[in-house]
Specification:
By secondary structure, the protein is an alpha/beta fold. It contains ten helices and eight strands. It has a single domain, classed as Divalent-metal-dependent TIM barrel enzymes (TIM Barrel, Alpha-Beta Barrel). An eight-stranded parallel beta barrel has the order 1-2-3-4-5-6-7-8, surrounded by six helices. α7 links the parallel β5 and β6. α5 packs parallel to α6. The N and C termini lie close together (about 10 Å).
Amino acid sequence: MNVPWENKLRLSLVHGMAYPTAQPGEQYYLDSVKRLADDDFFSVLEILWIKDSKVRRTVREIAESAHAKLTYAAQPALLNQKLDLSSPDDLNRKRAIDQMKACVDEAAELGAERMSLLSGFYRGEQEREESMRLLVDSLDEICSYGDQMHMPITLEAFDREVEKKCLIGPAEDAAALTRAVRRNHPDFGIMYDMAHGPLLNEAARHGLNLLKRYLVHIHLGNCVKGDSTNPAFGDKHPRFGAKGGEHDVDELVRFIKILFDIGYIRRNPKGNRLPIVGFEIKPMPSEDPDTVIAGTKRVWREAWARLDLS
């Protein structure tokens, strides 16, 4: 495709996945954030949970100096503490809601465009309807707080049976949830991850078509589905082309084409805020983060060059 992608979308990268050993409070963390901010390939940096306000201020300053935007991913705050926004236990659910409100404050302090989170856990079909009701209630409270702070909320859909085992989940449920939440909060939206589709046994075109009205963020990535002995099995987000993985250049070309077909990426964009298409790639322990990032950029350039929308 001869048209520059900068005319159609903004590319992002999940910092904490690309640099998994970088911990807030360590110099390597800030060095790696600056390394991404210095790379004009990425217009948006996706920042994971940061507890330290001093680190948040420094990250914001780096991004502003680089004319880069930020999004804030609160998923680790839920996962690391085993908090559940659809828990039948009122105390656990309140703790999860309160933590997300605190993360909204942190996202606002960062100057982030949006904050993302994930649903609670899947407890089986018998409890699915009640879990959905509780999740809608939780999101309504979080979104109301987000509205006060001018911080839109995004829910990322994960696998249901492999690793994260989340309620949301399949595209049908993600769409139903969004319809319910948007009755009061029209800025609420869904993040669809290319790497989660195979783990849900969900074809990308099927899932994206169902969610096209609700998408506010896209993740590109890879997964290993068929071999549980593979160290990258499950939701590990190995690099494109990793051994046993589901995705490489060919799959990325097809996925980008679908994003155009459903209108997430517009042939003739309107307005100044282009949609975010982000990479979530994690190096294996033997791999160097900068080398994996360089490979990711090569994969994108090749896929974009091969894209044919005729």
